What does this fold into?
Amino acid sequence: MTKEALQLKNDFLDWIRIQHTNIELTKKDEDHYRIERAGAYAEVNFYDLEELVVELKITQRQDDEVRFFLHFELNDPAYARSLFDEMAESLFELENRKAVRILLCCTAGMTTTYFAQKLNEAAAFLRLDYSFEAVAYTNVFEEGLNYDVILVSPQIGYLFEKIRDVMADKLVIAIPAKTFGSYDAAGMIELLRQSLSEQEKGTDADNMDAVLDLIDKKSSFMCVTILNKRARYEIHYHVFGDGSHLDSGFVRKNKYRLSDIDDMISTVLSKYRQIQKVFISTPGDVFDGKLTFKTFGIVDVDVVAYLKEKHGVEFTMCNDVHAMTQGYYLSHKEDLSDFVLIYTARNSSVGGAASVVNGHLLRGNHDRAGSIYPMNRILYFSENPSYLSKTPEGQVEICAKQLLFLIAVVAPQDVVICNPMITNANDVTEYLRTLVDEEVIPNIRISTHPIEYMIIGAVSLGL
It folds into this structure.
């Protein structure tokens, strides 16, 4: 480590100790430090690569899940301090929340509110670190994102499978009618404890063979994909080399910031110096290496030129939905030639769409084809789209009516829907039958692997 890098490191550690007196920074060795809290622990790690790199990480004790993770080069002290402040805030938020948060839902949330009170009293008596709250069905898909378990009351038991499918990453339990009717808090807690102990975490199995088939097996490259999840953004990276998938990881951010993307790229390039090219897919309008994402004040920024000059390797960048659509086509081209893919983030009423006609992706003037936001201004909906977007039924209405334009213009054989709140293709088909004749309704498919297709598409479009 150079003398300058060592000074930056020591100054950063001294700042943490002086400014965050409520945090005890424990030294494991010269480059690894830890912050112990009741519900989680944080790590501050230093790596002497081409540049001095800092890793900030929070792991929740309850499930060993990483809740905060990022890398950055330690060359701007003010920026490094702001990132540590962000991690510290996240650490205290985790500490202040209950170990297990449970959300009850029913038709209007009234009867479950009373049951939630009884359950909180029982949990306190049993000294269980559980927190119970209640909402109406219309809010469960938005509020439920912040909870570990969702309990479905008997009044809406017929919606149990829909809730379970949409909230696939949560433990969803149907409250037995006898338990709910008698407000048997002890019985419900026992069922909850059994279900939690039996719960097993699954892992996503990404098939990256299709990516490796696109490019020279001897080359080394990285894919960076930014996934819009409305309330947050996930920045994923995957590294390939020597004909194999070498590494992957991701961070979650509440805002879209180019500096966060650059930090990740800098860190990975420092670790894998053999990388020759980086493929990026991102939300926003992308053309000729320039990005416009007006929601975050980004207008015509030449991201590719900046990154190429800074890092000295080749970069390409494309729109996320274009990449997703191209990747889906390459993965299914044996039985697919004309189709439309429509992507919508959870609890959002707008998204993006792209079309493949005769095996070719339609990108339009300045690669802007696919924005469906203007459609909502002229379409008639039964409720405000922002309200409809909170439930699967509302999402089906929004999606079906947006598809009317795409069906009229492209007349696709198939439509691929990538929307975490729409899990049943027949729901969209049935709604379309109320709007148009049967013969013009395309075959509806559901896709649940946007990242995999974005990677394949980004590489294909960047070659």
About this structure: The CA atoms of residues 316 and 425 lie 34 Å apart. Confidence is low (pLDDT under 50) at residues 200-205. Residues 3-96 form one domain. The chain has three domains: 3-96, 100-198, 207-463.
